[in-house]
Amino acid sequence: MMSSTPNTEAGPAVDRLAMTLPRLAEKRRLGEPIVMITAYDFPTARIAEEAGVDIVLVGDSGAEVVLGYQSTVAVSLEEMLMLAAAVRRGLRTPLLVGDLPFGSYEASDELAVLSAQRFVKEAGVDAVKLEGGGPASAARASAIVAAGIPVMGHVGLTPQSATALGGRRAQGRTAERALEVAREARALEEAGCFAIVFEAIPAAVADELTGVLGVPTIGIGAGPGTSGQVLVVHDMLGVYPGQPKRHSRQYADLHGQVLGALGQYAEDVRARRFPAAEHTFSIDPAELAAFRDGLRHER
Ligand code: KIV
Question: What residues line ligand 1, using a CB cutoff of 6 Å?
Fold first, then answer.
């Protein structure tokens, strides 16, 4: 295969300190918004590096947006490790977080620690994320933290348990359910999580919780009052056609641009407009004559 050879270095040297847990805590203390984005491959990681984001999450959303599964529960730990290792190769300074997929941590503390260790050893992540803040999730978070691996929590809409939550819908919209989200977030903080994702909860609930928790909160569909924001990179780049999701903002129209480019390429090939002279390699006329001669004799 001949393709443009990517520079397999992690990208242009950047004049920025690597993100660490103390630096994240400091950002929260100073009220500086934390920027987090998902990535699932080497080129996106390099761009995230260049853009100067603080945290890159190899989310299990990759199950849907890059692997084409119907939901996040289908993705395996092996598949997540492969995506995370590619992202690692493209990153220098952002904190890299690997999302523990469904089935890789719930059954026992031992399983959770083993899966987190694989993420660190095989993919080189700095931290892992797990979903839910009930007693089992908090215990798994605590066990992983005790094993020396930083953990990011995730409450509110937790897609791995969407069926049990009644579908992919906003959570914490009654006082009772908001208190449940609060208890889960507190349990995760007590378990030692260094940050907590709030997904699809009312902005006012996220504000209150951000005020009472001692760790950074990262929102997706949780309003502007969290310590930081995260978006799924395919949503913000408009990789799929259709209306942006309510919680997201579309910053590019990659679907339209890529469709236009592929359509133009197809038209150019069919009309023999591509390749043009500048895309072809030449051969010395004498060599060509000798080649033709050789070909005739080899028949
Ligand atoms: O998998 C993912 O992309 C996530 C983010 C939405 C936080 O968990």
Answer: 38, 57, 59-61, 99, 154, 197, 199, 220, 230, 232
Residue 57 Cα to ligand 1 midpoint, Å, equals 7
- Specify the amino acid at residue 89: R
Question: Which residues contact residue 177 at a Cβ distance below 8 angstroms, ignoring those fewer than 6 apart?
Answer: 171
158-190 per-position pLDDT tens digit: 999 888 887 888 999 999 999 999 999 999 999
Rounded Cα–Cα distance for residues 102 and 146 (Å):
21
DSSP alpha helix (H) spans, the chain: 21-30, 42-51, 62-65, 77-90, 109-123, 135-146, 175-191, 203-212, 233-236, 254-270, 285-298
What single DSSP character describes residue 100? P
Q: Are 206 and 222 in contact (CB under 8 A)?
A: yes
Sign of the alpha-carbon torsion through 75, 77, 79, 80:
positive
What type of residue sits at position 72? T
What is the amino acid identity at position 70?
Q
Question: Closest by alpha carbon to 138, among 92, 185, 195, 85?
Answer: 185
* Position 10 confidence tier, pLDDT thresholds 50, 70, 90: low
Q: Which CATH number among 3.30.1360.120, 3.20.20.60, 3.90.800.10, 3.40.720.10 corresponds to the domain 21-252?
A: 3.20.20.60
CA of 29 to the centre of ligand 1 (A): 24
Residue range(s) occupied by CATH 3.20.20.60 in the chain: 21-252
Atom of ligand 1 nearest to the CA of 159: 8
Given this model, what pLDDT does residue 167 score? 81
State CA 35 to chain mean position distance. Answer: 12
